[in-house]
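To: structure desk
From: M.T.
Subject: fold request, one chain
Message: Could you run this one when you get a chance? Sequence is below, nothing fancy, just the single chain.
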Amino acid sequence: MATNMRGLTQFIADIRGARVRELEEKRINKEMANIRKKFKDGNLDGYQKKKYVAKIIFTYILGYKVDVGHMEAVNLISSSKYSEKQIGYLAVTLLMHENSDFLRLVVNSIRKDLDSNNEVDNCLALHAIANVGGSEMAEALVEDVHRLLISPTSQPFVKKKAALTLLRLYRKHPDVIPAAEWALRIISIMDDPNLGVVVCVTSLVMALAQDHPDAFAVCYTKAVDRMHRLVIEHEYTAAYAYYKVPSPWLQVKLLRLLQYYPPSEDPAIQSVLHKVLETIMNNSGEPTRNIQHNNAQHAVLFEAISLAIHLDTRSTLVSKSAGLLARFISSKETNVRYLGLDSMAHLAARAESLEPIKRHQKTIIFSLRDKDISVRRRALDLLYSMCDVDNSDVIVGELLRYLKVADYALREEMVLKIAILTEKYASSYKWYVDTILQLISTAGDHVGDEVWYRVIQIVTNTEDLQSYAAKVVFEHLKAPSTHESLVKVGGYILGEYGHLIANEEGYSPVDQFQLLHMKSQFCMAPTRSLLLSTYIKWVNVFPEIKPQLVTIFERYRHVLDSELQQRACEFYALAQRPEDDELLQNVCEEMPPFPPRVSALLGRLNKKISATEDKRTWVHGGREVNLDRDAVAKKEKETSAQLQQDVQDVMGSLAGLDLTSPHAKREGPEEGKPVLTVGPAIERWFEKLTYTAEGVLYEDVQIQIGVKSRFQGHVGQLAIYIGNKVSAPLTSFTTTVHVSDPTALSVTFAKIPPSTISPKTQVQQLLHIECKKMFSTPPVLNVSFLAGSMQSIAIRLPIVISKFLEPVSLGGQDFFERWKLIGGAPREAQQVFPIDLAAGGLLDLQKNRTVVSGHHFQVLDEIDPNKNNIVGAAVLHTAEEGKVGCLLRLEPNRDAKLCRLTIRSTSEDAAKELQALVSKPLKAGALT
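Reply: Done. Structure tokens follow.
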């Protein structure tokens, strides 16, 4: 570009030719003065503006402050020439920060470029939005960026930039994107034939799905389907094969996306995912000589192993993964060793059995001495996660030995982990005290207050340990150099429990005092304050050394430190009181046991794990820690939902007030709950299918959905026939089923639905159904597809409780005996409703029989004396609650134009639900 502007070329050459900074500044000041003069005079053409703004940009890049050229840059953006527009956008992104007032002047120009049919203009505008990304610009232009992303006329490279721009805006200003509202449309682009677009959109979905998991739940099926097409069906172009590995970047993102959701319970998805992961692991044979191929393959493999661990730690895939990881942690390549240890730590944090990992304990311990610190850190994490009662002595001992030579960057974290493991897996309290005191002696400055606080708590609360702890800490204090933390522990323990060992040889009160006081001269003021508290305790229990202690109090009364001085004065006054004085005895009583509390060490360790954009699905520390963490997260989520409900209740009580704001956050549909498509025909179709086995469920000008079902006992199958009525394909086709109570009803697809329906064709999807217990809400079928624009349909499936009835034949005597045995309320549900008579004033008995038998009741003839009445019997099958008897009586009254429906069942809920189902189509006009 500079070759086309001779002035800019000469300016750059002059700057480079300046031998000292003073000459460079002189040349720049001269040029800036000339530019100001030219801008002030005006009448500059586009070329001149471009040249001068380019000089300003170069000056800014050199690190000089510039205060000129902003308006000219704004004007260049509106130019129709690419070279001028490019310089204008470059100046805006470099010279203006996100809160600059000049940005308000360029919003309309940027929107105009977003609306342009020129893809280059689109891209320049997207670059500017992504680089500046201010809140005002985001609110004003996010709709236009989204429109470019979803537009069928946008070029692939424009879609890629639009997806990444939305990702940038969401990371900075998440409130400006209505994630739930745009979810289906964004997810549909994961079916785009261009894998480059899919990579970018998947990055966007990964960010949105972590914060809105329910709204983006459909992406799970899309990710599995795309992985199947890449890995199994090899559906990709040669351009996206990186050293024979199909689009490894996309595979890694999809595998990681699947880890943000709990494992799917759909057998079809489980089967496909298992096949994909198995294929990836089988393809990871011995490393080749091609480093790029190995890197791509390893990237996909390690993410696949993480997903296999996330799905089921007991699966054969995880067992196979453990074998692969054992090979990787012994690799000659540093990166491979690092990734192998990291994945094995993930396995140790989730696995129910650590035996496969313990087989390689020596190799892992050897990794602590690796030449690369990142590998050493991963080895530390793995040893921390794999430690249990059986190997705690070995691992803690090895960590203590390594602590003496460990990097300073690792020592603080090592101290915390050693302290936690020692407390968690202590085989005896004596071993705990020995290990922790050795840790404090070795680690020195890297021991936080939480470590020695915890030692004090445990010793205070364990009476059998107090005498032993006093002896051990006394021996440690004999060392020539003792860290201040150890002096604190010694001061506290000897002050509280030194009298327990005072009668033994070598531990006399004088020995304790001389040893501890000798260390005090090397300690800071807070430690000396603690030692003064130790001395006043000794005044009460060791009268033979009282004169020496009083002398110390006397000396400290005149120090400059206010804390030391105050303590010394108060303790001196206490020490002067008579020995039999109750005040001194009460003040110097032993500390009571500490109340039970969670170890502060865990909180300190968790704080060291910095928050990242990627929501962690596991933490180091073993399976129990992760289970506890999941339980806490679940409880917090429930509490948050309850608080949100309370807020909604409060807002509902303020219905008369206008609390809206021009900048209020836009709300989309409630996440996770589908909004049903409504219409009189839809309701009639659904009601008819509740008592028939096949028919139309939904139809419009584009699509027709029909169903055919069969049920036996507590299981059934429902075939859904989806027909494309238009002459264009329906792309990004997605079908999901929402079940309000999965514990009562299970509905799963037999295989992953297709993503495209060709013109004038029909596809079939098979659902497997199981009734576990009573339910009242039918599942909802969600269908979305692209046909010019995003279409979304949510309709109820005709899966109701009466589908699981089995007709039963009974004689008259048996029927009425059971009828009386069940009795009335609450196991009886009854409803009286008006009826329309057929032509001639006759009852349409055939329609009544059709409805009753359609709901799987056996119509019992010649049971009721009144021939107009209908009597039925059936047994309800559920997997968990077993069989439930159900009896029915339908009594129409032609003269009164009323009909009474009575259902009795051994289950109160079944009686109510069946009464509601059967009565609805029997009411007037329902069968027309």
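Reply (cont.): Residues 623-653 form the longest helix (31 residues). Let me know if you need anything else for the meeting.
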